[in-house]
Amino acid sequence: MNSVVRSASFILACAIVAAGAFVGARAAGNDYVFFAGYTVLQFVVLATAWNILGGYTGYVNFGSAAFFALGAYATVFFHKFYPLPVPVLVVMGAAVSGLVGLGMGYLTLRLRGAFFAIATLALAVVLQTLVVNWNYVGGARGAYVIRPAEVEGLSLPYVQYLFLVMLALAVVAIATARIIEHSRLGYGFAAIRDDELAAEASGVPTLRLKLIATTLSGALMGMAGAPFPYYIGYLQPSSAFALEYAVNSIAMPMIGGTTSWIGPLVGALLLGTLQQITTVTISSAVNLLIVGVLLVGFVILAPNGLIGLWRRVSVKR
Amino acid sequence: MLSYDLLLNAVMAGLLLGGFYAAVTVGISISFGILDIVNIAHPAFIILGSYVAYIVNAQFGLDPIGASIIALPGFYALGAAIYQVYYVSFEKRGQDALRGLAFFFGILFITEVGLVLEFGVDYRYVQAAYIAQSWHIGIVDLPLRMLVPCLMSLAMLAALQIFLTRTFTGRAIMAVAQDQVALQLMAADPIRIKRIAFAISIATASLAGAFLIIIQPVEPSIGRDYIGRVFAICVLGGLGSLPGTLIGAMLLGIVESFTATFYGPSWAPAVSFGLLLLTLAFRPMGLLGR
Amino acid sequence: MTALLEVERLSKRFGGFVALDEINLSVAAGERVGLIGPNGSGKSTLVNCLCGTLDNEAGTVRFEGRDLAGQSAHQRTRLGMARSFQLPRPFASMTVADNLKIPLFYAVNARHTPALTEPEVAARCEELLALVGLLDRAWRFPRDLTQIDMRKLELARAMATGPKLLIADEAMAGLSNTEVDDIVALLIRLNERGTTVILIEHIMRAVMSFSQRLVVLVSGKKIADGHPDDVMRDAEVERAYLGQ
Predict the structure, then answer these.
(1) CA distance readout (Å), B99 to A60, A233, B234, C150
(2) What are the structural domain ranges in chain B?
(3) Residue contact A119–B105, C-beta within 8 A
(4) Taking the model in full, what pTM does it have?
(5) Rounded Cα distance, B222 and B224, in Å
(6) Which site from A278, B6, C166, C220 is most exposed, i.e. has the minimal number of CB atoms within 10 Å?
(7) Pairwise CA distance, residues B97 & C146, whole Å
(8) A48 pLDDT above the threshold of 90
(9) Does A183 contact C at CB distance below 8 Å?
(10) Top-level class of domain C5-91+164-242
(11) Largest CA distance in chain B
(12) Interatomic CA distance for residues B200 and B73, integer angstroms
């Protein structure tokens, strides 16, 4: 009973912070805040989603772009029939990506973690090839998705609406991560990460839990991808499957810290904002180089991320 | 109605391609198959090798394969350095596999982006006398730009196999995969042996890179296409076996060649990765594995 | 009386190497069985096959009359078989107390008995830690424990699964005499509470004082099975195991 109350108050707190962020963004008076903010929030979702599988259970997913792109292309697919409202598309993106995550997990999770990681890389390329060859969703040329000027019912410019949607998704992702962390499931995940063999011997159904993690992680990434076509207006495979999604989904949690929901959030906010600045002031290639260097640097020098450093500093005092 | 001509040439092209793929993969057979290090950055080093060959070829007109042989010591040193960092940061600390994978992913990324910043995204190619030529044996075409790398690759594989089975260091490398304690009792330092092995694996990337840029023009991002191919071949052939690597490479080469001939080249990346997924799902010990 | 554990013609190969050759073993409920054999004789392989970590190619393992073929390791643990690992494998990111929560959440609470509530889980943790003598270190992390404490944690975690059969795999290697006696006493206490125990050990003192029955494994074959004193006098055992 106690934990339900705690979870509910956490979600409430998140919602309040999110609402505050939205009000603050509107007060800035500049549309750019919404565009940049959308991207940063997208990374919050992706990083948190990645961490549920990578940080909590220790299974590395190199194919975050695949699950993200599946959500985006599900939207394009359905958009051709009838322009559905974004929340519906989000649910569909989650369902598609979640199912693919489940399927891939079922095929590869019985193997060692290294093979799973390689398989996720393979998945990303296979899916990209499939999409490139599928003309219905635009193939290599890409697909236009016309963004409505305004949302029905709310007198909001569309980009602000998308920002709001992504805020909501960020709250969902973070709340999910935190609830898992403090639940029996979270203990099971940690046991798998620490020592899968011992976990299995202690009664943990490791395959089932790993499948849950993969499905959940994939679904959240698909959710993040679903509104993307509306945000960007013109969806090409090269942008949907961009390497920056794969590297950022890994770099942000590893730099922030993988053991708790705070790590991906901190990593995404810091790194995401840094990247917005670098891309605009220097170049997007240099920006990616910085991310790569930071990732390698943190992995070698501060394996527990910024949170780990913070903990060490605060213990010394 | 299947043309015999087309079929035979598809098979031949597949075999030549497979020979080349074996050179690309042998580094992973050593680092992943024998040392159990998941070096997913290996294709990036191959691309690096391609660019080195390109620079030397453009500046001095040297044959790309010759250039890559000159570059071997440099790549060897690079491999030794990377292994040292990897060992001190991860293996020694007993860190979980996650960090090691993230490390190599970061290196893959840094190398690719670094090359983009230095050379841009234009395709680069090398000049050599034999690249445009082609031998014809009956109805079979043997383009020299495929044949030369394939033959050199087979030579490299043979040399490595002899090294691994006939020399003390080579046998120590094979042994370190199985029993570090026994190796220590033989008065060989396992860490040094592993470092040598990893350095060799990166050195092969230098040659493989030269082969690559002879076969096709190169730009920084094509390394990623090779990740799946390399691991598919490694798993298919059974980890750590050089003959297995060759067979797996030939198999993949033929399957890809057929797909390209009869369905179109845009499906080629999916072939290797699809094969990898299937192998991992149904026969992860490989065709020749126990 | 049906045996608790029935092993029939269990065999396991690794490539060409025969690790276990047609092992037959029967353990009755409440017994204290010792299992000895030289290094490489297949003891750990046997444990792994019994507990589902490895697949045996041939033979059957029956627990409480039920064939375990196809049951994964966690399912066998839920059925009541527990093992401790030769080299302790604690959950490094969790405290000592939390290490015990895993089997309580996933083995005990997964059975068809009413699930333990949070306070009950905490109480059970305390009880187990007190039993092995780790209560004052409940909030430490495994990396801060001594060797013997890690062994105790390993045993406590196996015991936390609420097993009917506990297989203790070389839990005492490298411990001092008093520490060995501690662990033997612990296992006997456990047995008195109703848990059947198979003790795999090299330390003969512990094995002799603990076992009601002694089984000897050499090169993958069982060469003796009976009362400890009789087994130790057996000529083949002397030759194969002790004689050198």
Answers:
(1) 9, 37, 22, 26
(2) 4-282
(3) no
(4) 0.89
(5) 5
(6) B6
(7) 26
(8) yes
(9) no
(10) alpha beta
(11) 64
(12) 10
